[in-house]
């Protein structure tokens, strides 16, 4: 960014604290615009959350790098938003720059190696269906996980005894100093729903997964459909949620502990412990992030009293939750 442009942007930024009307800043040499006060509720599966102070959705690596540079130059914290399916965004919104990966898109299936290379913003369910239609096995289990490739790599998303770590060959990340690095599975420190990328300031830009081509597409599609159907019947997919709220404290299932504590159906505001699956907290319509946050804390407290087990949230809570809204 040229210094004159940076000076203009600083001027925009200083005016924004006094005046929160919507502003747009064009990122030079990209087709990318940074906008202020963008509501995030439409970008999260919970359908709650306040605005991003600044929001950008780059369409390529250069625009992503320019966005990161913008944040650095203006001393703004960066939050990465994938498909928003594992996020609880505060009603007060998120300070700093929210970078959404939704427009980082491409996928390449290599029949020679059986590997598929994907941009971070690709959808996991769409990928599972695409692989099934080609007769490539290895992603049938993922069809019910409504996340992006980047989010799945960071979270080590998994279901039906499989997870991303089982099939990941490598992930490309953008480091805070603007370099692209390729990390293999061992370097990502994977464990149950966890990787070293959680809480780090590296941004996943691309991933390569190992699949098995050559199966009968009809068979792979049938198994994929079964997995999807199983989800629809056992989990409350018809209401906004983040999937499982808590990690399973092995050997227990969090849902079982919550159900045995008598919390199924318990409600705070419009947030409810789902009747169909107790590890889901659903937005019954019009819940605030604060309702959901309070219910999470209530469930943790009641389960701890009953079982002396502290449930650890799997959902990432972003923004201010410590003060009442
Ligand atoms: C109905 C439903 C069912 C679900 N079922 C499952 C399930 O079976 N198994 C499972 O594991 N999960 C499940 N989830 C949770 C969720 O879909 C996964 O955790 C998913 O991997 C999150 O991906 P995302 O793109 O939505 O990430 P987000 O929710 O957008 O982000 C999650 C975290 O990853 C970070 N992040 C996202 N993208 C990047 C990136 N490119 N680079 C760096 N950091 C990034 C974010 O900053 C945040 O900290 C479910 C959710 C819902 C709503």
How do the helices and strands line up, and which of them pair or pack?
Blueprint: H1 3-18, E1 24-27, E2 32-39, E3 51-56, H2 61-73, E4 78-81, E5 87-89, E6 94-100, E7 107-110, E8 115-119, H3 124-134, H4 149-155, E9 158-159, E10 162-163, H5 164-167, E11 168-174, E12 180-184, E13 203-210, H6 217-234, H7 254-260, E14 267-268, E15 271-273, E16 281-283, H8 289-307, E17 316-318
Parallel strand pairs: 3-6, 4-6, 5-17
Antiparallel strand pairs: 1-2, 2-3, 7-8, 8-13, 9-10, 11-12, 11-13, 14-15, 15-16
Helix pairs in contact: 3-6
Flavin-adenine dinucleotide binds near residues 86, 154, 155 and 157.
Describe this structure in words.
A hairpin with a 4-residue loop joins β1 (24-27) and β2. The strands form five sheets. This protein has a five-stranded mixed beta sheet. The protein is an alpha+beta fold and 325 residues long. The radius of gyration is 21 Å and the shape is globular. α3 (124-134) packs antiparallel against α6 (217-234). 29% of the residues lie in helices and 23% in strands. The chain contains eight helices and 17 strands. The chain has three domains: 3-100, 2-Layer Sandwich (Uridine Diphospho-n-acetylenolpyruvylglucosamine Reductase, domain 2), CATH 3.30.43; 107-233, Uridine Diphospho-n-acetylenolpyruvylglucosamine Reductase, domain 3, CATH 3.30.465; 236-318, Uridine Diphospho-n-acetylenolpyruvylglucosamine Reductase, domain 1 (Alpha-Beta Complex). It has helices spanning 3-18, 61-73, 124-134, 149-155, 164-167, 217-234, 254-260, 289-307; strands spanning 24-27, 32-39, 51-56, 78-81, 87-89, 94-100, 107-110, 115-119, 158-159, 162-163, 168-174, 180-184, 203-210, 267-268, 271-273, 281-283, 316-318.
């Amino acid at each position: 960014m040229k210094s004159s442009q940076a000076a203009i942007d600083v001027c925009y930024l200083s005016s924004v604290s006094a005046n929160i009307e919507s502003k747009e800043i064009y990122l030079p040499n990209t087709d990318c615009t940074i906008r202020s006060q963008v509501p995030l509720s439409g970008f999260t599966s919970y359908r709650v959350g306040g605005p991003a102070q600044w929001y950008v959705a780059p369409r390529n690596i250069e625009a992503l790098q320019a966005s990161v540079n913008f944040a650095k130059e203006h001393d703004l914290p960066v939050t990465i938003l994938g498909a928003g399916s594992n996020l609880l965004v505060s009603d007060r919104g998120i300070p700093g720059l929210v970078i959404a990966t939704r427009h980082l898109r491409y996928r390449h299936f290599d029949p020679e190696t059986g590997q598929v290379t994907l941009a971070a913003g690709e959808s996991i369910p769409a990928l599972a269906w695409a692989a099934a239609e080609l007769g490539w096995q290895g992603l049938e289990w993922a069809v019910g996980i409504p996340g992006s490739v980047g989010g799945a790599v960071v979270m080590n998303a998994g279901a039906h005894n499989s997870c991303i770590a089982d099939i990941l060959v490598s992930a490309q990340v953008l480091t805070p100093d603007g370099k692209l690095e390729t990390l293999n599975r061992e370097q990502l420190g994977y464990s149950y729903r966890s990787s070293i990328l959680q809480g780090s300031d590296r941004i996943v830009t691309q991933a390569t997964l190992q699949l098995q081509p050559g199966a009968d597409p009809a068979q792979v599609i049938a198994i994929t459909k079964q997995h999807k159907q199983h989800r629809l019947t056992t989990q409350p997919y018809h209401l906004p949620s983040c999937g499982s709220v808590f990690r399973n404290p092995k050997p227990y299932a969090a849902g079982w502990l919550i159900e045995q504590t008598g919390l199924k159906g318990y409600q705070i505001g419009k947030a409810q412990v789902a009747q169909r699956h107790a590890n889901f907290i659903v937005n019954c319509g019009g819940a605030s992030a604060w309702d959901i946050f309070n219910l999470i804390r209530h469930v943790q407290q009641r389960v701890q009293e009953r079982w002396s087990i502290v449930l650890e949230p799997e959902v990432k809570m972003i923004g201010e939750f410590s003060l009442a809204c």
